[in-house]
Design a protein that fits this description.
The complex is a heterodimer of chains A (about 300) and B (about 325). Chain A is an all-alpha fold and about 300 residues long. Chain A has a single domain (about 75-285), classed as MetI-like (MetI-like fold), CATH 1.10.3720.10. In chain A, about 70% of the residues lie in helices and about 0% in strands. Chain A contains 13 helices and 2 strands. In chain A, helix 2 crosses helix 13 (about 260-285) and helix 11 (about 235-240) crosses helix 12 (about 250-255). With about 325 residues, chain B is an alpha+beta fold. Chain B folds into 2 domains: about 5-225, P-loop containing nucleotide triphosphate hydrolases (Rossmann fold), CATH 3.40.50.300; about 230-320, OB fold (Dihydrolipoamide Acetyltransferase, E2P), CATH 2.40.50.140. In chain B, helix 4 crosses helix 5 (about 140-150). Classes of the chains: A mainly alpha (about 300), B alpha+beta (about 325). The interface of A and B includes residues 198 and 200 of A.
Chain lengths: ~300, ~325
């Protein structure tokens, strides 16, 4: 997925692209080779039979999909969906106001805030999550401080539970939401809000009828960028959830490695992909957005 | 009920160290078409933003219909604005744009769409209900913006250089149309422009602004024929400012006599001859270095640059003005 926080594809630009289509050939070839073909292969794989030791046999079967209907896996899907929804909701609730107010700051302060949001990207996600473990573990920084302050008698058990995984997801994905919202709010024409106020709207009405619809593409991009990974970031669940919290991403990863069941992993991936697509489609329908901000 | 609908009392406003409005007093009568005329940065936009409630004055009061509205938010004032770049909502079609104010007032949908259609008819764009703003030309957007502001039936309509982005021909046509609309509705219009022709064509009264103060407020005739200051004479009438021993005078370019014409007493040298807008313009320099422009209809004159000549004018054509250095 490539990101370009600078803008959306406008109708005008699309038309221009049509004229110089030869320039696009490399992009089409790239997409075909690295996106479309692997996708086809994955769908194909999901209908094949697992080989005895490693790999698969070219024998058509629906076994892999039947297996997903097992309550064990269904529950995993439900769990993942729930977690993705919570994480997306919190990200929206925190990220939208954050990005909104950041975009309204004066230039100097805005640049500092932007830098603070970007800095985490300079370090590996894994290292940062391990950092949280140092903070939250039984003999970690947080417990130490609380104990010294006399607020608790014995260390709190903070790690390796569902809440911690939710926290980790939100932590890992919040910057994406902030940047998406920021990029659309930054482009807002504030004269429109003045016009809304002038025509009789109070601050809340102006926000709901003008600002929110105008920044919806940014919000939608943020939702896409936080919802989809929330279903699949297996290492967050691995690191912060111990072995207790299993998400779809974890199952896929386990089936690929320990389980050595490529076709089943592929089937899980296909179902996951369909589910996320459905959710995004529903969201688009509800919010009436047809373009993604900052996402191409 | 007094005759003055809108009164500004000693309004001051500064942005940082920049004093944009230096204590202005101004009143607008019911049903009047008033123009704030001035070059960019003179404070005219700030003035109407204060009237609209989009800006709060540092000092002074705004009275509408006798009530103090200085502290009221924009949505609580019976004043609407037509913004310079129209500010149509790009996410709504034409009829939703126009009906926006009614939607906020919880007017039922069939009723507000009917009203929107009526407004479209008023601005001569019937049938444009379902168009999106980006499918309209500049002139059409302009009309939609006016319809959107008028649908709320404001007591005062503020127009911030609404014709600035249109070409000359369309601008002339829209001037007439706006005037017609204002007469028909009887709404009080406060119009901003830097174009003196536009101001003279449309206004009942003109307030000439310069540097955060009003230089002169009066009818187009008064402003044009009896400028109070040298700035007004120059900005509105393109008049010559002559600084003589017995005072400072504004002399209109067509009233300056030159060459063999009777009454020419002041020696001068022709510097330039040019032709513009159906007029021949001759720039002359007096002995003390002052430059004057003489204009005549037609393109012929025997005078050539470098030639010595004389200029003059009748006493009644020299209007004494306060010199503000322009």
């Amino acid at each position: 997925m490539s990101m370009d926080f600078s803008g959306t594809v406008s109708k005008g630009r699309k038309r221009k692209r049509g004229r110089s289509w030869t320039l696009l050939v490399p992009i089409y070839i790239f997409t075909l080779l690295f996106v479309f073909l692997p996708l086809i292969y994955m769908v194909y794989l999901s209908f094949m039979t697992k080989a005895e030791v490693w790999g698969f046999e070219n024998r058509f079967t629906l076994e892999n999909y039947k297996k997903i209907l097992d309550p064990l896996y269904l529950r995993t899907f439900l769990n993942s969906l729930k977690l993705a929804l919570i994480s997306t909701l919190v990200n929206t609730a925190v990220g939208y106001p954050y990005g909104y107010f950041m975009a309204k700051l004066e230039k100097k302060k805005r640049d500092i805030m932007l830098l603070l949001v970007m800095i985490p990207f300079w370090t590996s996600e894994l290292i940062r999550l391990n950092g949280w473990i140092i903070v939250f573990r039984s003999k970690g920084v947080l417990n130490l401080i609380l104990e010294k302050a006399g607020l608790i008698d014995k260390p709190l058990k903070l790690l390796y539970n569902y809440q911690m995984v939710v926290f980790g997801m939100i932590y890992a994905l919040l910057p994406f939401m902030i940047l998406c919202v920021y990029s659309s709010v930054e482009k807002m024409d504030w004269k429109l809000v003045e016009a809304a106020r002038d025509l009789g709207g109070n601050a809340a009405q102006a926000f709901l009828t003008v600002t929110l619809p105008m920044t919806m593409p940014g919000l939608l991009s943020g939702v896409v960028l936080t919802f989809i990974p929330s279903m699949g970031l297996f290492f967050v669940a691995d690191l912060l959830g111990g072995n207790k919290i299993v998400l779809v991403g974890n199952v896929i990863q386990q089936q690929l490695t320990k389980g050595r069941n490529l076709p089943f992993a592929a089937a899980l991936s296909v179902v996951l992909m369909i589910l996320t697509s459905l959710f995004i489609a529903a969201y688009r329908r509800i919010t009436k957005t047809d373009q993604l901000e900052g996402l191409i | 009920m007094s005759e003055d609908l809108l009164v500004l009392q000693h309004i001051r406003k500064s942005f940082g160290s920049d004093d944009v409005l230096k204590g202005i007093d101004f009143s607008v009568r019911r049903g009047e078409f008033v123009t704030l005329l001035g070059s960019s940065g003179c404070g005219k936009t700030t003035t109407i933003r204060i009237i609209a409630g989009l800006e709060e004055p540092d000092e002074g009061r705004v009275l509408l219909d006798g009530k103090d509205i200085t502290k009221l938010p924009p949505n609580a004032r019976s004043v609407n604005t037509v913004f310079q770049n129209y500010a149509l909502f790009p996410n709504m079609n034409v009829e939703d744009n126009i009906a926006y104010a009614l939607r906020l007032r919880k007017v039922r949908k069939p009723e507000r769409l009917k009203k929107a259609s009526e407004m479209l008819e008023l601005v001569q764009l019937a049938g444009f209900e379902k168009r999106m703003p980006d499918e309209l030309s500049g002139g059409q957007r302009q009309r939609i913006a006016i319809a959107r502001s008028l649908v709320a039936e404001p007591q005062v309509l503020l127009l911030d250089e609404p014709l600035g982005a249109l070409d000359l021909k369309l601008r002339r046509q829209m001037q007439l149309e706006l005037k017609r609309l204002q007469k028909k509705l009887g709404t009080t219009f406060i119009y901003i422009t830097h174009d003196q022709e536009e101001a003279i064509n449309m206004s009942d009264r003109i307030a000439v602004m310069n540097n955060g103060v009003f230089e002169q407020i009066g009818t187009p005739d008064e402003i044009y024929y009896h400028p109070r200051t040298s700035y007004v004479a120059n900005f509105v009438g393109n008049a010559n400012i002559y600084r003589g021993n017995d005072g400072v005078f504004a002399v209109r370019t067509e009233k300056v006599k030159i060459g063999d014409e009777p009454g020419c007493v002041i020696p001068a040298v022709v510097k330039e001859k040019s032709f513009a807008g159906g007029q021949l313009r001759i720039l002359v320099a007096l002995e003390d270095g002052q430059e004057l422009t003489v204009s005549r209809f037609g393109i012929n004159s025997e005078l050539v640059p470098g030639q010595k000549t004389k200029v003059g004018w009748s006493a009644e054509d020299a209007v004494p003005v306060i010199d503000d250095g322009v």
